[in-house]
Design brief:
With about 200 residues, the protein is an alpha+beta fold. It has 7 helices and 7 strands, in the order ααααβαβββαββαβ. The chain is globular and about 55 Å long.
Length: about 200
């Protein structure tokens, strides 16, 4: 009943929303433009409901050229993405990018053997070779790989961690890789719940 009398949020310009998010460490990739954002929704949709439409869109890819992320720190990850042998190597490369390459990761390789039911990814880190196996389930990604990457960030005392929501976006999960201070500011803007991925694993 009382919800009928709740005030709608005041409109905020798209440019001001982007500026506010920049204070949380969330900025557009060098290749991204305002036009790329407006390709998903018209300006009034973004401005009438501040951050509600913008934040999920920033987790998507630029729909041109090399399909780079709109924002490196956010990722709207479609779980149905394991389509070729290099899929997990691409996932680690994306997570490394999300974390601002704060770990000295090198030589990412991987394989997916659909017929044999085996998948793995490996990379170099500080003179050692990290190797993780992944579960093969048709073309569905094993989310445990993202959890392992977050655990690695924690073990290496990286300045950032992975936060997620994997309940509100259908077959996709929303990931953010932020410092504690950045996350505290960001979660107050997001219109959906985000939590430390290790607490959801």
């Amino acid at each position: 009943m009382f919800s009928l009398f709740q005030k709608k949020p005041a409109p905020i310009s798209l440019e001001q929303q982007l500026k506010t998010l920049a204070d949380c460490g969330i900025t557009l990739s060098a290749q991204a433009t305002l036009g790329d954002i407006l390709g998903h929704h018209a300006r009034p949709a973004y401005e009438a409901a501040p951050f509600k439409e913008l934040i999920p869109v920033l987790g998507m890819e630029i729909e041109r050229d090399d399909f780079a992320p709109l924002c490196a720190r956010l990722w709207m990850c479609d779980y149905e993405r394991i389509e070729d042998p290099g899929a997990y190597a691409e996932i680690i490369a994306r997570l490394h990018q999300m974390s601002a390459q704060c770990l000295p990761i090198t030589g990412i390789t991987g394989d997916v053997d659909f017929a044999g039911g085996k998948a793995w990814v490996a990379f170099g880190l500080a003179g050692t070779r990290v190797h993780w196996d992944a579960v093969v389930d048709k073309d569905w990604m094993d989310p445990g790989i993202v959890v392992k990457f977050d655990q690695l960030l924690k073990a290496q005392r990286a300045p950032v961690r992975i936060y997620s929501n994997h309940t509100d976006f259908g077959q996709s999960a929303f990931f953010a890789c932020l410092s504690t201070a950045e996350f505290e500011r960001f979660r107050k803007l997001a219109t959906f719940k985000l939590a430390e991925i290790e607490k959801q694993a």
